[in-house]
Design brief:
Layout (H helix, E strand, L loop, with lengths): L1 H13 L2 H22 L7 H6 L5 H14 L2 H5 L2 H7 L4 H34 L8 H31 L3 H21 L1 H4 L9 H4 L2 H6 L4 H4 L3 H25 L3
Helix pairs in contact: 1-7, 2-7, 4-7, 4-8, 4-9, 8-9, 8-14
Length: about 250
């Protein structure tokens, strides 16, 4: 397993994916911080943007959805999956090594986001003290909610990529699902009042991050924060189990 994970990390580094995405993510945060500093936008207040890592969460989700949809598709497209199996690597080990790599990389992206936010905040917004308990609490709460929501999309994209044979289609479906789900997540509130059991649908789970920072949203989601957390974890584990099953049955 350890060697398999190292191999997956080597593939990422060889594509220079880590460097490219780190630069893009850091650049976005820097751009938002500069715009916030020199423009008087009430909506883009420094207090709100620091707590959300300068709205960088959506980009991390995009990166992870793309990577999750590609990690297996590329192996089958270029035939490298045959080489992995010839080395007597079990499919179970291949799957979990890729999963561990994805989890590790998602943590890395969030650490980059948090580090860039803290550094730029200390330089550009010294009036916002990150030593304040409330500021740090909101920051880490948002990071936790976004991380879980990100993995809801990443696990779904991973499952979709193994359900279809076309690499491009897998990427398109994964990214399209992300944007469509984000748009429909708010609309579904109108339906929940009429059909109560729909509160457990995946779209409602996307409101975890918002509810963590604003408990009043519980009236809309009709689920306690703990229920949203459990629901997200159940969906993530279910998508990963289905993905593992599909990979074990996928023809080489």
């Amino acid at each position: 397993m350890k060697n398999a994970v190292k191999q997956e990390l080597f593939k990422l580094m060889k594509q220079q994916l880590i460097l490219k995405q780190t630069m893009i993510l850091s650049g976005l945060i820097f751009l938002f911080s500069i715009v916030t500093k020199f423009n008087n936008f009430k909506v883009l207040s420094a207090e709100n943007l620091v707590a959300t890592c300068f709205n960088s969460g959506w980009l991390i989700v995009f990166f992870m959805v793309y990577l999750a949809s590609q990690t297996f598709s590329m192996e089958f497209r270029f035939g490298t999956i045959k080489n992995l199996l010839k080395k007597n690597q079990q499919r179970r080990i291949i799957f979990f090594s890729k999963l561990v790599t994805l989890v590790g990389y998602s943590v890395y992206l969030n650490v980059v986001s948090m580090t860039a936010t803290i550094c730029l905040s200390m330089i550009l917004f010294p009036e916002i003290s990150l030593n304040q308990t409330e500021v740090l609490r909101v920051l880490f709460t948002n990071l936790l909610g976004n991380f879980i929501g990100m993995w809801l999309f990443a696990s779904l994209s991973l499952m979709i990529s193994l359900a279809v044979s076309n690499e491009s289609l897998a990427s398109i479906l994964g990214i399209a699902t992300y944007f469509l789900s984000s748009m429909l997540a708010g609309i579904q509130f109108m339906v929940l009042d009429q059909i109560n059991w729909l509160r457990w649908n995946p779209l409602n789970m996307l409101n975890l991050s918002n509810q963590l920072s604003n408990s009043n949203i519980e009236k809309l989601t009709q689920l306690a924060t703990s229920q949203l957390l459990i629901g997200n974890l159940v969906y993530i584990i279910s998508f990963l189990l289905i993905a593992s099953f599909l990979f074990s049955r996928k023809k080489v």
